[in-house]
Design goal:
Length: 474
C-alpha cells in the first residue's frame, strides 16, 4: 500500500496539466489535478481556442469581401455583413464545449478534479485552499507544476479592461473599435490585427524593435509585412515604446524613441490592445517551501526531463511543464512536456526535443516554422564545424495554390550542406500551420533533404511546396 494519497498530483488544469493527467492515467497512476479557475487554462479560455474561432469568422468575412479574388473564380458576391455578437458567441460556445470535453475526459478516466488554489506545502505535499476557504493537505509521490502564464503589461500602461486591454479581454470581442492601437507585432498582435481589419477597423501597430515581426525569419517577415500589413488598413511604428497609455475616450498613447528616449508622437485612438507577450504565473506556488527559486524572469528552472532544479540539481519528485518553464510558450509544447514528465515519473527515460516543436500564427495567410532560423543554424554550424544552405519555393508555382487562387507566400528550408540534415523550415502561405507538421516530423527524426526528396506527395496539393524545396536542395 502506498503511503501517499496519490501517485501524482498536478497543479493546474491547462493544456499541459490536462495532457499530463491523461497520460498518467494511461500509465496506471492514481492522479489528481488541482485547478482554481476555469478548466483548460489560458489556451481554452483566453487564448488559442477563442482566438481561432474569431479568426475563422473574420477570415470568412475577409474572403467574401475580396470581390476581385472571387470574380477570378467566377463567383459573384453582392456585399457581406456580419453580426458581431454572433461572432463573439461562436467563440464563447466553442470555449464552453471544449471546457466540458476536458472535464468529462478527466472524469471518464477517474482522475480526481480538486477545485481550489494549490501550492507546495513541502516535499511531496500540496496544500489546497478550496473556494469555501478551507485548507486541505494532500500527499503524492510526484507533483507536477503547471501554473501557466498571464499577459505582460509594461510599466506606464494602465489597463482598464474596456478601452485598454490584453488578449484576455480582446477574445471576448465585446465591441469593435473604429481605430485600435496594437502594442507588439508578435503572434498575438498579428492575429488580432487580422481580425480587426477583416471586420472593418483601422489598426496602428507599435513595435519597440527596429523591424516588425522580429521573432520571424527575416525572409518570411518581409513577405508577411507586405501581405498582412501594407495591403491592409494598418499604419506602423517601429523603434518606439508606448511609454504611457491612458484609458479613456479617446485612449492617449505617448510614443518614445527607443534610441533617444524622447517622446516622438502622441496618439489618440478608440482602444489599445497590449500584446507584449506573457510572463509566468509562478507566484504563490509555495516554491520557497521546497527551497526552489525562480530565475530573474520568474520561470521555474527545469531540465529536458522536466525535473525542477535547485541550484542546478534535481529536486526529487518535483516536475514543471508549460509556460511557467519559459522553454516554448505554446499550448502543444506544454502538452508534450507533460507527457515527457510522466514518462520519466514512470521510469522511462525521455527528453523533450524543442527543435521539432512547430509554431504557427493563424493569420490569413498563415505563418509557421519549426526548428532553427538561419542565424541559429549558422551559429550551430560554426560551433560544430559545418556549413548551412537554404532553399526557397513559392506558392505561385504550386498547382493547388493556383487552382485556389491563393498564391501568396513561400517555404524556406535550412539544412546542413554536408549531411543534408534538415535544420529548420519556415512557411508563409495557405494552410501553413498544417503543412509545417511534415517538416516537424522530419526534423524530429533528423532526416536529410536527400532522403526527403524521394518521398512522394499527392498531386496536386499544397504539400508539394515542401516536396519541391527538398528536391531543389539535392
Amino acid at each position: 500500500m502506498s503511503n501517499f494519497d496519490y501517485d501524482l498530483i498536478i497543479i493546474g488544469a491547462g493544456v499541459g496539466g490536462h495532457g499530463a493527467a491523461l497520460h498518467a492515467s494511461r500509465c496506471g497512476l492514481k492522479t489528481a489535478i488541482i485547478e482554481a479557475a476555469e478548466m483548460g487554462g489560458t489556451c481554452v479560455n483566453r487564448g488559442c481556442i477563442p482566438s481561432k474561432a474569431l479568426l475563422a469568422a473574420a477570415g470568412k468575412v475577409r474572403e467574401l469581401s475580396h470581390r476581385q479574388h472571387l470574380q477570378s473564380l467566377g463567383i459573384q458576391v453582392n456585399g457581406v455583413s456580419y453580426d458581431l455578437k454572433a461572432i463573439a458567441s461562436h467563440a464563447n460556445n466553442l470555449v464552453q464545449k471544449i471546457q466540458s470535453d476536458l472535464t468529462n475526459s478527466l472524469k471518464r478516466l477517474k482522475i480526481d478534479v480538486i477545485r481550489g488554489w494549490g501550492k507546495l506545502a513541502g516535499q511531496q505535499k500540496v496544500e489546497v485552499i478550496t473556494p469555501e476557504g478551507e485548507e486541505r493537505i494532500y500527499t503524492a509521490k510526484d507533483i507536477i507544476l503547471c501554473p501557466g502564464s498571464v499577459p505582460f503589461v509594461p510599466k506606464g500602461i494602465e489597463v482598464d479592461g474596456k478601452t485598454v486591454y490584453t488578449s484576455d479581454t480582446a477574445v471576448k470581442l465585446e465591441w469593435l473599435p473604429q481605430w485600435v492601437a496594437i502594442i507588439g507585432s508578435g503572434y498575438i498582435g498579428l492575429e488580432f490585427a487580422d481580425i480587426y481589419t477583416a471586420l472593418g477597423a483601422e489598426v496602428t501597430m507599435i513595435e519597440a524593435l527596429d523591424r516588425l515581426m522580429p521573432t520571424f525569419d527575416p525572409d518570411i517577415a518581409k513577405i508577411a509585412e507586405r501581405i498582412l500589413i501594407h495591403n491592409r488598413d494598418i499604419e506602423t511604428y517601429t523603434g518606439v515604446f508606448a511609454t504611457k497609455v491612458t484609458p479613456g475616450t479617446p485612449v492617449r498613447i505617448e510614443l518614445t524613441s527607443a534610441k533617444t528616449k524622447e517622446v516622438v508622437d502622441v496618439l489618440e485612438v478608440d482602444a489599445c490592445l497590449v500584446a507584449t507577450g506573457r510572463i509566468p504565473a509562478t507566484k504563490n506556488l509555495g516554491l520557497e517551501n521546497v527551497g526552489v527559486e525562480t530565475d530573474s524572469r520568474g520561470f521555474i528552472p527545469v531540465n529536458d526531463r522536466m525535473q525542477v532544479l535547485k541550484d542546478g540539481f534535481v529536486v526529487p519528485h518535483l516536475w514543471a511543464v508549460g509556460d511557467a518553464t519559459g522553454k516554448m510558450m505554446l499550448a502543444h509544447a506544454a502538452s508534450g512536456q507533460g507527457m515527457v514528465a510522466v514518462e520519466n515519473i514512470c521510469g522511462r527515460d525521455r527528453v523533450i526535443d524543442y527543435r521539432s516543436i512547430p509554431a504557427a500564427a493563424f493569420t490569413h495567410p498563415e505563418i509557421s516554422y519549426v526548428g532553427l532560423n538561419e542565424s541559429q543554424a549558422k551559429q550551430l554550424g560554426e560551433k560544430e564545424g559545418f556549413a548551412i544552405a537554404t532553399t526557397k519555393t513559392y506558392f505561385k508555382g504550386n498547382s493547388k495554390a493556383l487552382a485556389d487562387g491563393e498564391t501568396e507566400g513561400m517555404a524556406k528550408i535550412i539544412y546542413r550542406q554536408d549531411t543534408g540534415e534538415l535544420l529548420g523550415v519556415h512557411i508563409i502561405g495557405p494552410h501553413a500551420s498544417d503543412l509545417i507538421q511534415e517538416a516537424a516530423n522530419a526534423i524530429a527524426c533528423r532526416q536529410s533533404v536527400r532522403d526527403l526528396a524521394f518521398n512522394i506527395h499527392t498531386h496536386p496539393t499544397l504539400s508539394e511546396i515542401l516536396d519541391e524545396a527538398y528536391k531543389r536542395a539535392c
